[in-house]
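Table S2 (continued). Query chain:
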Amino acid sequence: MPFIDRADAGRRLAGLLKDARGTDAVVLGLPRGGIPVAFEIARALGAPLDVILVRKIGLPSQPELAMGAIGEDGVRIVNQNVVRMEHISEQDFAAVEQDERAELERRANRYRADRPRVPLAGRTAIVVDDGIATGSTARAACQVVRAHGAARVVLAVPVAPRATVNALADAADEVVCLEVPEPFFAIGQWYRDFSQTADEEVVDLLRRAATGAAAGAREEAGVEAHVAAGDGGEAGAGGEAGNDVAVLAGPGTLPGRLTVPPAARGIVLFAHGSGSSMNSPRNMFVAGALHVVRLGTLLFDLLTPEEEADRSNVFDIDLLASRLSAATAWLRAQPGMERIGVGYFGASTGAAAALRAAAEPGNEVAAIVSRGGRPDLAGPALGAVRAPTLLIVGGLDDRVLALNAEARAHLRSENQLAVIPGATHLFPEPGSLEEVASLARDWFTRYLGAAQPAGR
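Corresponding output:
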């Protein structure tokens, strides 16, 4: 199955690496195309991300044939067989090495800036690229990380020919590959979007990975402070608290929290994104804003804890959409909810699930709001969505903004793209989450306001 892009490949590949979560693993991306893949793997595993810089040392007369490789901190790998057969002197090797080391240092300064290299001594190194053809660069990368002291080396790629995977078995302790097509012609054939990765994207992803944990902690603290201050949260209008419920969806029941203000004008079901849950402070904040205007909410976990342990389920849009549809049916079966207007609020992958669920025949959804979502992952279902859809994206979330703009072109229902200036993907900037809540409140009020109030 072709990958949507490198990020999609990384998320899918992470499902095969889930055993590394909670270990001392370090994810190392080969620039440039391997970095977007590695970024998603590192995020899924909760592991540090770094760039693995390798320069092959080619023969002076035949540069494509490697006689060695170099890495940072003076790491030097010499292929003695090639050197001996080609009668390469130490001076000849050093001359080529000097030029390649200058380029390696330039890239290190460009990509890593003032951040130190992540230490590998005694750790598991997961070397990642966007695909492998001949395997020479991947082999050199594995040799370099071993020279840096890695105790175990895992080579992980989305696609490669079977012969190359087999040949690399002696270079790494484990080779993980999603697709091994035969015949194999080119890596790019396995991507819908295989556009070149720019240096700027590499720099940005490495920076985001390095600062993401601290930023995420600051954001969660900030949102929780909002909730604690009474700016949003579980309580509905007039301070009414939500009820813990067991939502019948999937193989059994899923925990949820249902809040129905008096004479509710509609109910909004929240579909959270990967790595989040029904207790997401961001979603609770938005839910609190909806309660004030007499909109009820249902926040629930889309997966069981056992299912969440398999990272592939977190990105299974069909599975998430089916759970959302089942939860909608469960809600409508509750007393007084038979004719209540229903809306969906989706974040990240949850937005794709919301759109796909809304496109299902017979699933009457009055409105959809996506926060920093991935509507592109809804695929062909976009054209079947009937509900008015609002896509909210941060102005600095460049990649997601582009994906939303592209996905919007496939929507046939009424839709709008709202860009919040100065905001990044999770909207941690002062005032940005408030703007998300305000936009969502107005959109749902507009389209759920005419629905029959819920019985109490």
